[in-house]
Amino acid sequence: MAVENIGCIADASPKAQEALEELIKRYKVIDLAKKRVQVDVIIVLGGDGFMLQMLHRFMDRKTPIYGMNCGTVGFLMNDYTLENLPDKIASARSAILHPLSMYARCLNGREIEALAINEVSLFRESRQAAKMRVTIDHVVRLHELISDGVLVSTPAGSTAYNFSAGGPIIPLGGNVIALTALAPFRPRRWRGALLSHSSCINFEILEPEKRPVSAVADFTEIREVVSVSISEQRKISLTLLFDPEHNLEERITKEQFVY
After folding, report:
1. What is the pTM of this model?
2. Cis ω for the linkage preceding 187 (within 30 of 0)
3. What is the pLDDT of residue 15?
4. pLDDT averaged over every residue in the chain
5. Could you give the percent of the chain with pLDDT greater than 90?
6. What is the third-level CATH fold of 100-232?
7. Neighbour-count burial for 100-135, b at 16+ CB within 10 Å, e otherwise
8. What share of the chain is helix, strand, coil (3-state, %, to 5)?
9. Which one is the CATH code of 6-97+237-255: 3.30.420.40, 1.10.1660.10, 3.30.70.3490, 3.40.50.10330?
10. Sheet holding 238-242, edge to edge
11. Cα end-to-end distance, the chain, whole Å
12. How many Cβ atoms sit within 10 Å of the Cβ of residue 237?
């Protein structure tokens, strides 16, 4: 891709701020924290959490994002280097992500919508386990799931909380999403399912006053929900750029062979 105007945004860590200063000196990149202008590509300096925040923040711009790791894990980031950066961006490979759309209805009648790039999670709010009915595409698949909670994960988020909870790692082009139970009590040993990316998943909270449940879409938490509907938002596309030797597809594959 042709790169002329490069924007950059950094988290508050000293490492990221130093990197931003060096980028401005060497390549005259635009600090997007100070100027709201249209650019050809956005460089994000930080870790995976900051990258998620920036993907949400710049979602409407439809601008490709190239991350450089100034954090800890950096699964969604490239290695940090300043050498030949415009050329590296020009030769980077694209990974297209589609977020999940969550629609939640609360005990008090409020209706809230939010988007999740990684996952939508439902958690019990009290000492008692959550109890819910699970419906997939208008067919009841579990009349009663009793657990600490449940989550629905995108392929990009499948290596994060989903994998830690025992869910599967999903290739980006797999056209599936993961439904993963969190510490299920009933049904015994039910761990979840792989579903088509076009599926509509609905959770009906049973006994919501006695067993309150919260829903979380990335950074948006909604408490005391009575129902949550989740589907992939195919109309929204997010473009992440990766160096050819560290593309996201390869990282997802490698995660399945880590021991």
Report:
1. 0.90
2. yes
3. 94
4. 93
5. 80
6. Tumour Suppressor Smad4 (2.60.200)
7. bbbbbbbeeeeeeebbbbbbbbbbbeeeebbbbbbb
8. 20, 40, 40
9. 3.40.50.10330
10. 30-31, 6-10, 41-46, 65-69, 238-242, 93-97
11. 36
12. 12
Domain ranges of the chain: 6-97+237-255, 100-232
Catalytic site residues? 48
Give the pair of three-digit tokens for residue 56.
């949400």
19, 20, 117 from 94: Cα distances, Å: 23, 23, 16
| Residue type at 121 in one-letter notation | S
Give 122 or 82, the one with higher predicted confidence: 122
pLDDT given for residue 244 in this prediction: 87
pLDDT per residue over 119-169, tens digit each?
Answer: 999 999 999 999 999 999 999 999 999 999 999 999 999 989 999 999 999
> Token pair of 129, please?
């386990």
pLDDT band at 217 (very low <50, low <70, confident <90, very high): very high
**Could you tell me the two tokens for 14?**
């000293």
CB 136 within 8 Å of CB 201: yes
Q: Strand, helix or coil at 212?
A: coil
Positions of E strands within the chain: 6-10, 30-31, 41-46, 65-69, 93-97, 100-106, 111-116, 119-124, 130-136, 139-147, 149-153, 176-182, 192-196, 200-205, 213-217, 220-222, 225-232, 238-242
Q: Are 115 and 235 in contact (CB under 8 A)?
A: no
Structure tokens at 241: 């750029």
The torsion angles phi and psi of 85, rounded to 5 degrees, stand at: -60, -45
* pLDDT score of 64: 96
pLDDT of 251 strictly over 80 = no
Can you give the pLDDT at residue 250? 80
